[in-house]
Design the sequence.
């Protein structure tokens, strides 16, 4: 096929991503496990790209984990989401940016439900007005936070301090990307590249000098399972699915895993530790696990942010192997320090994997 | 048609998720839960599509409807645009509204989810909060999480968070006014009633098991369904 033909087809897999003036919807999981990522995202949007983004103290969870664990009725989730749209409307914003892939799926499902079943929209307007007195307009643009980083990936790279290159060998770093099921599997048209050719993370990796690892279980679920992880007795489902992915990617010797979804990031990090403790099985090289990073952490490293300012010390699998390959400067003494550099106790070392 | 089936069919997610299944089985081929459990979304849609009330009642009482991990991979691949994962949401709602969920081991776990995620939403305004992620309940989180948990005030401050404080920012304290709005939404939309139903039927189960429904026994029941239900046959 001629290049023009391919470009024409590729246009069908693109989505509109607003340029500026964003209303930011935070993520429960990202705030708990990767607080430095949301900090880095806001810093990049405001300071590196010079955009306007509003961080609202009045927002709450979207109830997504509860909804997919089936303790929350759909009407309740729709109305909580409508309240967030009302907060956005009241502040004069129209571009809704979502920090969580589960939430992105929730907002997308509700948006499509309201289009297909206008009665549900009217019912939700009634519920919200009755419960809170609030009214809302629908956002004119709704994106996942990674879509914004993807859109401005070249601009970010132009301000780089580091690129995704192994400075010891001069070769591109081999990076696994995991976009998370609810980014494009439910509504493929809402993800960059759709479900078939998701580009949101691979675009960042390639633009920043890295090489994307294509492995057999690339699109398999991380195994969250919502209710399965939430109940200790059923966590085997979750670890088994991540294990399937690790077994599939390990032969390609990836230097890092980059995730779109905060839940996937946490599971791919923690389950490597659990599998090592259970089976003494390590998927990285030289006794290390495979570092698992959020896309904000990756962008932050490229821009030269301090790894401990990004929160890499909160990962169970050490990220130093990646930092060393990129020859990023960091102070190991400050890894476990507090806000003002004060020394905190050091975590207990795991038995097998670092 | 009985009331349970009528409610299932009238749910918008049923209308959206089951147009006309031709039983091709692509959903089962792609399904991570079908690989891990004795689960088969193709069979699920065959039963639901038949509208056989007895078979649907059996589903609502069984572990079968609780196997799905909600990844929604089935949605992407179905050539008819069906979504078995969405039908699962409808059936799980029916199972809890009818009380049938306490008849299966995995169904009973809804009480544990209510006591963790449900309570978090109403108390903190978040699905997950560091205070509730204790290392005892989450050993899989490993020693680094234990370190974070034990030093959370210092570590979240180090990472620019606003843990449990007023104003905007990461893990800020959700204000009383905002929580009141969330509670009001739960009251108006049936979320609170649904929580009460899960609680009511779980207490009934505890009574059937021969125990008083006091706080101590409900806590024991919570730990039982959360942690130790693996070898417990229904």
Sequence:
């Amino acid at each position: 096929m001629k290049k023009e033909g391919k470009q024409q087809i590729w246009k069908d897999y693109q989505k509109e991503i607003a340029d500026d003036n964003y209303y930011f919807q935070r993520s429960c999981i990202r705030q708990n496990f990767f607080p430095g990522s949301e900090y880095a995202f806001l810093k990049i949007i405001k300071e590196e790209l010079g955009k306007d983004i509003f961080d609202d103290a009045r927002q709450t969870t979207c109830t997504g984990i509860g909804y997919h664990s089936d303790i929350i009725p759909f009407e309740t989730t729709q109305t909580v989401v409508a309240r967030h749209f009302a907060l956005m409307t009241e502040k004069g914003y129209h571009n809704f940016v979502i920090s969580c892939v589960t939430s992105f799926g929730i907002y997308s499902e509700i948006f499509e439900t309201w289009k297909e079943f206008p009665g549900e929209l009217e019912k939700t307007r009634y519920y919200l007005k009755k419960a809170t007195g609030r009214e809302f307009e629908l956002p004119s643009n709704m994106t996942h936070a990674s879509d914004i980083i993807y859109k401005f990936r070249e601009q970010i790279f132009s301000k780089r301090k580091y690129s995704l290159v192994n400075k010891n060998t001069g070769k591109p770093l081999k990076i696994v990307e995991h976009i998370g099921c609810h980014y494009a599997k439910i509504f493929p048209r809402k993800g960059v590249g759709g479900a078939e050719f998701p580009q949101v993370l691979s675009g960042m990796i390639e633009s920043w000098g890295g090489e994307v690892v294509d492995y057999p279980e690339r699109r398999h679920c991380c195994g969250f399972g919502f209710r399965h992880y939430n109940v200790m007795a059923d966590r085997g489902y979750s670890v088994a699915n991540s294990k399937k992915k690790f077994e599939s990617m390990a032969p390609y010797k990836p230097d890092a895993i980059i995730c779109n979804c905060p839940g996937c990031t946490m599971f791919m990090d923690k389950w490597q530790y659990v599998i090592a403790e259970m089976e003494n099985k390590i998927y990285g090289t030289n006794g290390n696990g495979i570092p698992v990073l959020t896309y904000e952490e990756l962008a932050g490293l490229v821009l030269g942010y301090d790894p401990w300012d990004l929160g890499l010390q909160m990962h169970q699998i050490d990220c130093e192997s990646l930092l060393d390959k990129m020859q990023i400067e960091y102070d190991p003494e400050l890894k476990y320090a507090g806000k003002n550099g004060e020394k905190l106790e050091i975590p207990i070392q795991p038995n097998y994997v670092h | 048609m009985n009331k349970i089936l009528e409610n299932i069919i009238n749910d918008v997610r049923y209308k959206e998720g089951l147009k006309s299944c031709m039983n091709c089985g692509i959903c089962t081929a792609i399904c991570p839960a079908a690989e891990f459990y004795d689960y088969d979304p193709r069979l699920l849609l065959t039963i639901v599509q038949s509208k056989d009330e007895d078979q649907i009642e059996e589903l609502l009482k069984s572990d079968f409807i609780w196997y799905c991990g909600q990844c929604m991979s089935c949605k992407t691949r179905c050539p008819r645009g069906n979504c078995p994962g969405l039908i699962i949401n409808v059936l799980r709602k029916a199972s809890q509204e009818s009380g049938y969920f306490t008849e299966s081991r995995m169904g009973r776990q809804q009480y544990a989810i209510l006591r963790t995620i449900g309570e978090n939403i109403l108390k903190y305004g978040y699905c997950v909060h560091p205070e509730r992620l204790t290392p005892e309940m989450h050993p899989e989180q490993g020693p680094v999480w234990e370190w974070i948990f034990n030093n959370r005030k210092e570590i979240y401050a180090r990472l620019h968070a606003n843990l449990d404080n007023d104003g905007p920012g990461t893990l800020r304290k959700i204000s009383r006014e905002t929580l009141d709005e969330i509670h009001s939404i739960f009251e108006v939309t049936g979320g609170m009633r649904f929580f009460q139903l899960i609680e009511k039927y779980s207490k009934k189960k505890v009574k059937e098991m021969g125990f008083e429904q006091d706080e101590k026994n409900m806590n024991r029941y919570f730990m039982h369904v959360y942690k130790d239900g693996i070898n417990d046959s229904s």
